[in-house]
Amino acid sequence: xxxxxxxxxxxxxxxxxxxRMLDTISQRMQLVEKVAAAKLAQPGxxxxxxxxxxxxxxxxxxxxxxxxxxxxxxKRIFNDxxxxxxxxxxxxxxxRDPAETKDLVRIGFQGVEGAYSHLAAQKHxxxxxxxxxxxxxxxxxxxxxxxxxxxxxxxxLPLENxxxxxxxxxxxxxxxxxxxxxxxxxxxxxxxxxxxENVPLGRVRHIASHPQALLxxxxxxxxxxxxTVESFTDTAEAxxxxxxxxxxxxxxxxSEDAAERYGLHVLKRDIADQKENYTKFVVCAKNPVEYDAxxxxxxxxxxxxxHKEGALLQCxxxxxxxxxxxxxxxxxxxxxxxxxYQFYVDFEGHIADQNVTNALEQIQxxxxxxxxxxxxxxxxxxxxxxxxxxxVESTALKEEVxxxxxxxxxxxxxxxxxxxxxxxxxxxxxxxxxxxxxxxxLGDGSFTVIAGPCAVESREQIMESAKLxxxxxxxMLRGGVFKPRTSPYSFQGMGYxxxxxxxxxxxxxxxxxxxxxxxxxxVMKVAAKADVIQIGARNMQxxxxxxxxxxxxxxILLKRGMMASIDELLMAAEYILAGGNSQVILCERGIRTFxxxxxxxxxxxxxxxxxxxxxxxxxxxxxxAAGDRELVVPMALxxxxxxxxxxxxxxxxxxxxxxxxxxxxxxxxxFRQVTSGVxxxxxxxxxxxxxxxxx
Length: 695
Ligand code: PEP
Ligand code: MN
Known about the structure:
binds manganese (II) ion, D-Maltodextrin-Binding Protein, domain 2, eight-stranded parallel β-barrel, elongated, alpha/beta, binds phosphoenolpyruvate, Alpha-Beta Plaits, TIM Barrel
């Protein structure tokens, strides 16, 4: 009998051992389930115990060394096991309604089967694989919109790669979408060179892949002289095409999984420049998922700061003050506004935590826009555990040293009063909100005159009106293109054609424009062209409209309803603020009383009352209150005297020919009286304030 080792037998033994290891893993997972149940029974018990993980890994590394094993690999294996258990436990503690209650869960991704997005999606929904349908789309946008339409329950898109950085297309989609981030997934990218047959590398002449993958393998590509490269929409698509073309000298860069799926050969594994190549994916859905507060969750935000010096610092301070750990801060260019930026922030926390709510309320004061993209379990932890120092002592030392440099977190900042309008409310010491529209600033103590016709009637009419407004002292142009008319037979406005004329007039005379929107579906379309969106008195409590305005980045001029109390006006503003849009200008435009001598009754007391209650700017519309141009002049001056931040008045080059609200349209001469009158009042008020100060 020969004592030469028998490969077959050894392999058999290995297979048996693997199976026993699987049994052990299965036993471990059963224990993990018990742990999850025990944690659930203990209120306040966090899912993750990082200290225990660290001690356990260090202990295992020590034992591995004693047994002559490489501690690096042992730690890596156990790290994966920990990740697996945490994933399992977090599912126990999460309410993932769609996946649990529906028969079939539809999950979208960009690319074809075997693409990294597909693999990450499968990993994320590994427990639901039997009732999951994965649908590939050719672009990120197609996949995203399918989810917005309700064709998908979830969409999984890449957001960031540890070598390539942020993935802009996904950020763009998240920006304006109503979808929520409900989860994240991390995929370790292991690029392989894939060929039709097992040819030597020297025979490869042409390599195709996704541009990111080509970039990540640039050192490897540079080592192959004379090859040509070709880009595809995703890595798996490059493999599919390779198979179709049947060119023996062609190859593709993709995952090993893609090679298997298409029955091709891996010519070389791990060809990326950097081994630690991870891609983070976000999982989005129409509705947010409520996660148990004991899970380690993060919150993702997008915010745009006010145009004030130090605004970014003010936005970041509440994180520190509330002891919230920032995980990521990324600045990205704002759409339509060159050289202005918005910020993406990830921080550790749970959305139901009062500390988080308070911090967000404080931050919103310094933003023009703030949107919570989602709150979801963290999957980006533990990736440093393999590289950390080999033993517990040195880790502990590192922490001690780090601790010496750490400030203790400040006392949690004051909690806000229980007013129903928390974001609109003014607390003592709060700064007033300033809203910048082009060169005009509302709420900074200056007086803003907005003027123009009730409705845009023609190109000529709005051009002539704009010239009049500019020449006589107005700084912003109004003009309705969607008109809320009491009678269905009246002129309803010129719609988008009128909007284009209004835009042209505003640009020609250097005046930002304000126009009314009545329907939620028009908000984003109008916001793309108008500087300020007006919500008319009749729509102050149109809640679907208010919610849409919350998602919009333009300042909103919100008129008080004819029958609305001041509190109701503030609650309507709160809808917009709570939706993320911090730029609301309140407008008093007259209310219905028993008095019939005028169109409505201008409630000038609302100005000082609102100044007391809110930090938002307040302007007055005397035109719609009075309904009579003779009364508009004194009421405009009274508004300035009462401390308003501005007025919005109707004026028309030929008031008698106005299609809409002609009787209240100021003549050019009356408009001149108004602008010079409010300036005089402004000077008088400033003078008396200075006198009172020096007295
Ligand atoms: C308007 O500004 O033209 C208008 C219709 O105003 P209100 O909503 O205040 O009536
Ligand atoms: Mn009008």
